[in-house]
């Protein structure tokens, strides 16, 4: 993983020793590498600039890379990517406020999501964002009504559902017609025709997103070919589609997956869509931040059962829910590398939460570990901190951004008292 490597047997984030951060911040904590964030972004920027430049079939407008904030919406992470030129893909009014607060211009923000409220639509239109991706007829009508009330025209794309199997975990596949997302591609032409008659709507684009953690180009390509065919139909029908939003979804390596390279992805996008001459937006999340972050935890106890070695750490499913929710694999490594000759034996790495699902790793070969040893859960930069909860009244863990030899806390650990302070007793319980 760029940004994380052993130096003299100690795991470093950029040039900072992870134990030094742990000593300063306490465990558990998330740790992100600014170097990795920038490199990941630049890989996309370069790949798309190259693919679309060398493509002789027409597209000239720069490809917009709208980082999907849902993967990791920490302001410092968003700002680091924004300073590289990233726009933002947001799915709530809250995420829009974050993107703006991190300095992403409204003109580089796309609003996706299957259920935007009227308040969220109004806020997006007031901010003057680049585009709203609409996912249903009632939502189209809501955007129209809000736009008319504001005296503006909303630039929209209809998110279509191309009925393509993304070949990923079923909970993060979104492109089959039985999924709740988008408008069936076969209904789209009629709905665009309706959209074109609405005074508050400017149907400028087509959007698609078929799922996350895709490790093959084929489903993307099938979906994009269907979208390209739709664009041709729409243009023939007199609707001037000028933009394509191709969503996110490019997978990363957690274990031994071999996802397509960013270059191969960009080349395919240019080959399938280049001749349309559209302004293309992509919405990568995981591929930008997933391997730019780790979750660091300390061992509390090691318990030797009759059939198992349990390594009980101070992070839990509330801090990183991906293993519990998707049976996701995260590499677990000791922060201090074991001596070369050390044997590994299988261990279950578990958290302190009172559920068997609070298990990070089953029968993983690990060197001997003791109380207070540090371990790192790798590839935790995407869908880690953002999906955390305070289950078991465990405060959200801090987030740390490292840049070269510097590190800073970019979200602090709240005190338990702060959690309790948000709650109040009803008058009938508040006597003494
Ligand atoms: N655009 C849209 C409309 C999306 O729904 C998503 C992700 C993305 C872009 C970014 O996708 P990415 O490039 O990150 O694959 N919590 C799950 C992943 C959920 C993805 C939801 N949508 C996980 O931990 O695997």
Task: Walk me through the topology.
Layout: E1 4-7, E2 10-13, E3 16-17, H1 18-25, E4 29-33, H2 34-54, E5 64-68, H3 75-84, E6 87-90, H4 93-101, E7 109-111, H5 118-127, E8 131-134, H6 137-150, E9 154-161, E10 183-184, H7 185-195, E11 201-207, H8 217-236, E12 243-245, H9 262-273, E13 279-282, H10 286-289, E14 293-304, E15 309-313, H11 322-326, E16 332-334, E17 345-350, E18 359-366, E19 374-377, E20 399-403, E21 406-411, H12 416-421
Parallel strand pairs: 4-20, 5-6, 5-13, 6-7, 7-8, 8-9, 9-10, 9-11, 11-12, 12-13, 15-17
Antiparallel strand pairs: 1-2, 2-3, 4-14, 14-15, 14-19, 16-19, 17-18, 20-21
The chain binds ligand LLP.
Question: How many strand units?
Answer: 21
Kindly report the CATH topology of the largest domain.
TIM Barrel
CATH classification, class level of the largest domain? Alpha Beta
Computed Rg? 23 Å
On the 0 to 100 scale, the average pLDDT is 96
CATH hierarchy: architecture of the largest domain: Alpha-Beta Barrel
- Summarize the main sheet: 9 strands, mixed
Q: What form results from the Cα inertia axes?
A: globular
Beta-strand proportion: 15-25%
* Name of the CATH superfamily of the largest domain: Alanine racemase
Q: What is the count of structural domains?
A: 2
Cofactors and ligands present?
Answer: ligand LLP
In DSSP terms, counting alpha (H) and pi (I) runs of 4 or more, how many helices?
Answer: 12
Flag low-confidence runs.
Answer: none
């Amino acid at each position: 993983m760029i940004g994380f490597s052993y130096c003299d047997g100690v795991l470093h984030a950029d040039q900072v020793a992870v134990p030094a951060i742990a000593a300063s911040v306490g465990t558990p904590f998330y740790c992100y590498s600014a170097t990795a964030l920038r490199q990941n972004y630049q890989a996309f920027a370069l790949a798309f600039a190259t693919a679309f430049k060398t493509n002789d079939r027409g597209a000239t407008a720069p490809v917009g890379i709208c980082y999907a904030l849902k993967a990791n919406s920490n302001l410092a992470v968003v700002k680091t990517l924004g300073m590289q030129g990233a726009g933002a893909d947001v799915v709530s009014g809250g995420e829009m406020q974050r993107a703006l607060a991190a300095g992403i211009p409204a003109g580089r923000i796309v609003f996706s999501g299957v259920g935007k409220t009227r308040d969220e639509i109004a806020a997006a239109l007031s901010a003057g964002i680049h585009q709203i991706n609409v996912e249903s007829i009632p939502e189209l009508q809501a955007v129209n009504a809000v736009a008319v009330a504001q005296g503006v025209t909303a630039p929209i794309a209809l998110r279509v559902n191309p009925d393509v199997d993304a070949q990923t975990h079923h909970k993060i596949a979104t492109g089959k017609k039985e999924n709740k997302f988008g408008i069936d591609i076969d209904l789209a032409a009629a709905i665009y025709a309706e959209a074109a008659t609405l005074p508050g709507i400017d149907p400028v684009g087509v959007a698609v997103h078929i799922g996350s953690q895709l490790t093959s180009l084929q489903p993307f390509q099938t979906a994009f070919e269907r979208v390209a065919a739709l664009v041709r139909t729409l243009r023939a029908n007199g609707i001037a589609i000028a933009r394509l939003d191709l969503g996110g979804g490019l997978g990363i390596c957690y274990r031994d997956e071999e996802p397509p390279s960013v270059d191969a992805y960009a080349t395919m996008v240019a080959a399938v869509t280049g001749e349309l001459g559209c302004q293309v937006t992509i919405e990568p999340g995981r591929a930008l931040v997933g391997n730019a972050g780790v979750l660091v935890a300390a061992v509390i106890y090691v318990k030797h059962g009759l059939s198992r070695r349990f390594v009980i750490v101070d992070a839990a499913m509330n801090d990183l829910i991906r293993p519990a929710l998707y049976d996701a694999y995260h590499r677990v490594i000791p922060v201090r590398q074991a001596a070369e000759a050390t044997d590994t034996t299988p261990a279950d790495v578990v958290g302190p939460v009172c559920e068997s699902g609070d298990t990070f790793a089953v029968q993983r070969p690990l060197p001997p570990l003791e109380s207070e040893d540090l371990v790192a859960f790798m590839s935790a930069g995407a869908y880690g901190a953002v999906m955390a909860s305070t289950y078991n009244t465990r405060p959200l863990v801090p987030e740390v951004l490292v840049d070269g030899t510097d590190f800073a806390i970019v979200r602090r650990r709240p005190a338990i008292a702060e959690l309790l302070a948000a709650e109040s007793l009803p008058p009938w319980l508040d006597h003494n």
